[in-house]
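task queued by scheduler; priority normal; single chain, no ligands, no partner chains; default sampling; output format set to structure tokens
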Amino acid sequence: MFNHQERIIPAWLDKGLKFRRPQERCLEDLLMVYPSDDFMRKLPYGKMPDRGDFKRYADNPSGRLRNWRQAVETSKQLGEEFLELVESGRLRDVVKKI
């Protein structure tokens, strides 16, 4: 599972309900990968591009595309680091229980 934040949201409609938590049994075999705060600060406006950008950049589609492309380019390093951890067998060394 890839997520943009550390918080796990059980269902799409639960996003605004801060008290909702997934059941413990659902987390037993879950590996969640999410970017660090340092990584997020490297992205345009310090966030992952999302569907809200279509409204935000309604009058500036080239700005939206520029930001999305920059996020993709910045994310390549994150993907390469993850693959290196998997291929080297060092993934277990960085996994933390949540």
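post-processing summary
- The mean pLDDT is 84.
- Helices lie at 37-41, 52-56, 61-88, 91-94.
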